Amino acid sequence: MKIAVVVFSGGQDSTTCLVKALKEYDEVHAITFDYGQRHKLEIEVAQNLAKELGVKAHKVMDVGLLNELAISSLTRDDIPVSHDLQENGLPNSFVPGRNILFLTLAGIYAYQIGAESVITGVCETDFSGYPDCRDEFVKSMNKALVQGMDRSFDIETPLMWLNKAETWALADQYDALQLVREKTLTCYNGVIGDGCGDCPSCELRKVGLNDYLDDREAVMAALVHKQTYQGR
Q1: Distance CA 79, CA 71 (A)
Q2: Residue 134: pLDDT band by 50, 70, 90 thresholds?
Q3: Residue 123 near residue 138 (C-beta atoms within 8 A)
Q4: Is the dihedral of CA 12, 14, 18, 24 positive or negative?
Q5: Which pLDDT score is estimated for 81?
Q6: What backbone torsions phi and psi does residue 185 show, to the nearest 5 degrees?
Q7: Can you tell me the mean pLDDT for 1-17?
Q8: How far apart are CA 25 and CA 1, in angstroms?
């Protein structure tokens, strides 16, 4: 039996990954992390989506310690989300160590339930400049976890080489375009669906959606080409 663990925030990317996993695995576990993020609504959205999609095992894990250690506009209400980069060249929405922690805990969970895959929606093609969304980082984490637990499993990144328009096409490919558009929470200001329209996350999401809707056939063809080349 094929078992997967999906790192699930209730946003566009992780929801698309979850929908895909539910079609491809016999058993899917979703894991959502409560790290004291800017909007607690994110957790509620994830719970509602998991229920609607029929996920039988959805765990919300308290990792509040991350909030104490990582200073970011996504962990502090008094730091506004900015379009400008910090002195270190990173956006102030970057939460240092977040994906290191998330993938480590998801890997431990996968070990306990005998899952062969951990799935995360990180992307290097259209991303917010976060270093922990890069392919090199994920491969390094995968290697470290396999060595540290002496058990083989794969960290899968279905969106790694997709642009945002192609990510929308992937959701559409699995008949989940409207669900992802209307019920996910990607907005840094906590607005479900199309969001506030102003924060960096909303801008990226909107541009990708418009690009897809403007030429669905071409974007879908590009997605299928990438899936064929990369073995889906």
Answers
A1: 9
A2: very high
A3: no
A4: positive
A5: 61
A6: -125, 105
A7: 97
A8: 8
At 45, which helix (H) or strand (E)? helix 41-52
* Residue 109: other Cβ atoms inside 10 A: 18
Q: Which amino acid is present at 55?
A: V
Q: Which amino acid is at 147?
A: Q
Would you state the structure tokens that stand for residue 22, as one six-digit string?
Answer: 């539910």
pLDDT given at position 73: 57
CA distance 170 to 117: 19
Q: Work out the burial of residue 45: count CB atoms within 10 Å of its CB; fewer than 13 is exposed, 13-18 middle, 19 or more buried.
A: buried
Strand extents, DSSP E, the chain: 3-7, 27-34, 57-62, 117-119, 154-156
For the entire predicted model, the pTM comes to 0.91
Q: How far apart are CA 41 and CA 37, in angstroms?
A: 9
